[in-house]
Amino acid sequence: MSNEIDMLSSCYKKYYNCFHLTAIFLLAVLIFWPVHSFSLLIGWDDQTFVTNHYTEDGWYSKNIYTILTEFYHGQYSPVNQIYYSTLFELFKYSLVYYHVFSVIIHLVNAILVYRFVTEITNVLFSFTPIKNAQVAFFTTLFFAISPINLEPVSWIAASKVLLYALFYMLALLTYIKYITKNRNQYYYLTLLFFIMSFGAKEQAVTLPFSMFLLDYVYNRNFKNNIIWLEKAPLLILSLLFALASVESQQIGVVAGSDSYPFVAKIPLFFYTLSEYLTKIILPVNLSYVYPFPFQIGENVPALFWIYPLLIPLLLYYLRHFFLKKWILFAGIFFLIHIVLVCNFFSLARHSIIADRYAYISTIGIYFFIVICFIKAKQAKIARQYMRLMPLLYLGYFAIYTHGHSYVWQSSITLKEKIKIIIESRRDFQSWKNKHIKKAK
Amino acid sequence: MKINKETIGFCLLLLIIVANLVIAFNYYYLDKITVDDFFYFQTNQGKLFDPNIQY
User: B55 and A48 in contact by Cβ < 8 A?
Assistant: First the structure.
């Protein structure tokens, strides 16, 4: 009898999973449909990272060796470069395939997020299988159609983020398998996916910390030496990868660039953190570039000192709230994947934040939001609104992402907004007159 | 009405989100670009990028 119930439950779960993933796929394809016709973003990295001699030399052994052993324009991303070389071998520069593959990888990432959230929810909550599947479904749906995740899907040169996330999520899932099944082959797979993930993007160095978080979620004993020993190779690799990233940046793009002083980095760090959080929860006026609010050497505007004062204060007031395991998981998952790009450790670049950097960290926030909706519904707090709210929220995401995707159509459409703003400013006219006079 | 610490915490969080939304609605970032920077920006050369890179 018990076996029959298990079988029925398993069939029901499979049916649910298939239904959920099909719905997510259909909606995502509908939203990202315009992307297939987009052009190369000349003047926004595509001409450097997509159309280059590595891509055009294809699967020639010497080319692969060069890709694996050289830094290119301040970056080390051999997995991403080999991905372009493969696409070039197959389709030359037929851009539709490059865009279609970006969407496909994003959808595969969505499947992995669904698996990951299902596993985590199973451990953290005692929900029914249907409710568990609902948590995974809504978290994945938010992840798949979120406006902040549009950038890596619609911009070919940002495919490194998609590939890094693909191998990173595979590493997390194999690590969960390793914890639950206790088989060494899953550990070796985690190691392999970690290396592949770093080969796509340097943000992967955070993986050992995510593994510690999973140890906490799965109630593993931190006093047990094995937990630390099994992380040692990954921590050493992380350190080596981090050093390689710094080395590549120093001989590349940011060579000679100054950095903000330590005092200015404190408000910048807290401000950047809050900006990522806001843009994940309520994306408004997203842009391809967010210039620094003050330049190196300038005084920090008073407004930006509010952030390092308020954020620690709110963490203090919410300390008991954060002690709940699922909230701590969501918060730390977000932090682990965002902290490196909050302008404290990283070197100053031209943009204070970039939508694509939040790709994996969005999972933590959307997981938190979905659980909040479910808890509010269970507690019968404004029950009728709790049905409508997620739908309105998802509707906003779907419409915004679809509408905003057209911005990424070409270099002209990408820079249109910023051009209009600059040209509407008073100083533009005097600048124009000055240059006309100079030309004469 | 009794206001507990968590309510204050959430109010502070809300305040930060609203402040960031105001910044986003007003294109605060884009306003920080000088006209000179913008025209460099269009060609990907100059201050905002590494001048050593020739696109």
Answer: yes
Cα separation of A330 and A323, whole Å? 11
Residues in chain A closer than 8 A to B31 (CB atoms): 421, 425
- The DSSP secondary-structure symbol of B52 reads T
Q: Which of B17, B33, B52 sits opposite A422 (nearest CB)?
A: B33
Residue of chain B nearest A51, judged by CA positions: B55
Mean pLDDT by 10 residues, chain A (440 residues): 60 77 94 93 82 86 88 86 94 93 97 96 88 93 96 95 97 97 95 95 94 96 93 93 81 56 89 94 89 81 89 90 92 95 71 92 96 83 76 95 94 80 74 65
ipTM exceeding the 0.85 mark? no
Retrieve residue A44's tokens: 């926004």
Partners of A318 on chain B (C-beta within 8 Å) are 5-6, 9-10, 13
A422 close to B (CB below 8 A):
yes
CA–CA dist A245, A237 (Å, integer): 12
Q: What is d(CA A216, CA A402) in angstroms, rounded to the nearest whole number?
A: 38
**B22 in contact with A at a CB cutoff of 8 Å?**
no
Enter the pTM of the model: 0.90
Q: Which residues of A touch B9 (CB under 8 A)?
A: 314-318, 321
